[in-house]
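Notes from the pairing session

We agreed to fold both candidates in a single pass and log them together. This is the raw record for the first candidate, unedited. Please don't reformat it; downstream parsing expects exactly this layout.

Candidate A
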Amino acid sequence: MSSIVSITMEYFKRIVLIITLFTAVEGFGQNYSFKVKYGMIQAGTAELIYHLENGILNSRLNINSSRWLSTLWALSDSMKSMYAVETAQLKIHTKAIHEGSYHRNYQVEFFDSNRVQINGKSKDLITKGLKDIPSLLFELSKTHFNKGDTLHYRVWDGKGYGALVLLVEKVTGPTLLKPFSEAGWHLTPLNSTRKSRGNHIQLALLLSESLPHIPLRIEIDTKYGNVLMRLEKP
């Protein structure tokens, strides 16, 4: 039984996600609700919430395993952040990880004086313009892409950050070899972290052609299998 749970944990972390997206916009807020599937199996739910006021983007991302999967392995991850849009700088980043028996919590506050406080402990931080996952998706949604562009980001997650360089390519639509391809912008990383190299992870992202860009498809190929996140059209 423990081996089944272990395998389930690894596969769920690199899950094949087929996403149904419902969007509600009220004033300066935007909500996204997701149904998460592994293959044909209902695996969980996710919710991404944005609220923009006075130049500050408040974001919240919650991911939870479905009831049936929770009987084998419970997932309850959340991320909250405050991001200054004009200066492109994170202000607050909170992450709670609850994956089976693995629990971690990070409370991070960023200061203008090149200091960051992580769970009450301060340290120097030279880098500016940091983004976490929600704020990165927000920035990508309003970016004007050109074929051949390389986009440079520094992404914070939990207690640290890493460099992310994305190559932009234009996809015109279905072809003879790829009859189900969708038109849009194809983004692929030109760099990888030590962790991603160790897991043999390759990532590809397809965003909608028009602004604001919506993630149509995310593909991750790992040593555990192929991960697919696809936007299900209404």
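Candidate B (folded immediately after A)
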Amino acid sequence: MITCRNLLFILFFTCAVSNAQVVIKDWENQLDDKEFLTMCQSAKEIISSKNNDFRQIVRADIFPMKEEWYLTMEGMFDVYKWENQKWVNQYKAKFWGYNFASLKFINDGSLYSFGGNGFWKTHGEIIKFYTHVNEWDILPVTALLPFGLGLPGYQELFILRQDSISIFDIKNEKVNTSFLPNFHDSIPYFANKKVIESKNYTLVVNFNQILLDKRNRSIHQLARGAFIFILGSDDGFYHVVGDSIIIYNNKLEFEMAEIINADFHRYQQVFPVDMREVKKTQAGLNYFIIGFVLIFIIAGVYFFYFKKRHVPAAQEDFQELLERVLRNAGKTLSSEELDETLNIPDYLTPENLRYKRSKLVNELNGMYKIKHSSELITRIKDPADKRKFFYRINA
């Protein structure tokens, strides 16, 4: 919490303007004034450094995980850890673009990212960050999960769509879906940017005013005017302490504070959807759901046995990637040399290395062929060992 004693300091605290909304999930009020300000200032500098002509970050999250503080941003795989009074990126690869408007959330000391949109698709996949290798990995059961609005609960992620609700059991990695005709309005791709999670509630602002009460697992659509203090505030700093939200502008000047519980009970509409009433048997009796479950099983087997927990296909800054490849124009590279050029981590298993190399080569060839009507990279079998390949750069 920021005390009155320090408000004068905050009022004169100036820094570069950022259009991002930064949500600080300090539910147990662990941050003191000085650390709060230092973290926020440093986060703004990181966000500004990532913005360019190809991407504009509008949402970032700061949160504790296993007694450490972390920073994430939409559209990026970067995971920054607070070390020695600065943010240090733990993610070593350079992939990005797969998860704009994604929802980052913490459960049982682990970081997850739900859904998003990118260069090629809008999706509902859930990926998990593994701190022992500092890599993201897809949860196979979610590989075909459609996009939706994510509402984190205590042990579940509730996913709302126009005609259905899915409940992702985080601990057991299971998905149950029930179809509810005309349950909700269509969900825009940016909806997850508007989610603010507190200790006992998950609130969606600037879009249909939805609130999840984690305590009894009920979802409510609120009357117009609820949480009006947040409407129009698409940037600034949202310090969430318990079930209160303290809002600061881009200069870290205090603006207002509200308690979610108070507004919730003041504006609650008679439109609660109690998730306890969503029957699992409904999905089991629906032929479409049976087919959907079978697809999930097939996808899970495919991912487990053939791809063995790979990082989801994301898009790097292809202009930079192309430039690195084109520096080798006319050359023939070994697999190891190509991996180094493409920034593929060398600690992956041989199978994962082959998969990531093949995927990037195919994507680069596809993009290059649009302009040049020919492939950029050609595979050539090693005459001394038919199991190996060389890679000719044709530009």
